[in-house]
């Protein structure tokens, strides 16, 4: 496999998908974790609810991983086929599929973590508002789902 080949472009697309999803989840879970640790120190009985709120932004990393798997699978490279018949144009298309998946995971993970952190503060004040805090945080998840959906649609068009 050459340094700059269609296969390398496919791998870059898969890396973008996974890496940015992982970064978004890490940042988002960090925001929520910082807020959660302060609340649990005062009200340890809320740990389960706080843990759920912290876990919500973690799904973007999963979407990024699924996106990378789909890119590699659709391109035919998942089995390690280095003798593929991909063209440079196809390699570039697979690379571009990773962009909306990765960036929707990055941004939605960060913002979902911020909303989850605020939801944790809400739960600390009134734990009967847990469901509302979850729904508000989960709304941002929609955009990560749309990112993986457009990635799948683009893959079927290659």
Descriptive terms for the model:
158 residues; Four Helix Bundle (Hemerythrin (Met), subunit A); 5 helices
Summarize the entry for a quick read.
By secondary structure, the protein is an all-alpha fold.
Structure report:
With 158 residues, the chain is mainly α. The chain has a single domain, classed as Four Helix Bundle (Hemerythrin (Met), subunit A) (Up-down Bundle). 82% of the residues lie in helices and 0% in strands. Helix 3 packs antiparallel against helix 4 and helix 4 runs antiparallel to helix 5.
State the shape: elongated
Instruction: Tell how many strands the DSSP assignment holds.
Output: 0
Largest sheet: none
Regions with pLDDT < 50 over 5+ consecutive residues? none
CATH architecture: Up-down Bundle
Number of helices: 5
Rg on CA atoms, Å:
19 Å
Mean pLDDT metric: 95
Question: Which superfamily, in CATH terms, is the homologous superfamily?
Answer: lithium bound rotor ring of v- atpase
Query: Separation of termini?
Result: 21 Å
CATH topology (level 3) name: Four Helix Bundle (Hemerythrin (Met), subunit A)
Structural class: mainly alpha
The CATH class designation is: Mainly Alpha
Q: How much helix is in the residues?
A: over 70%
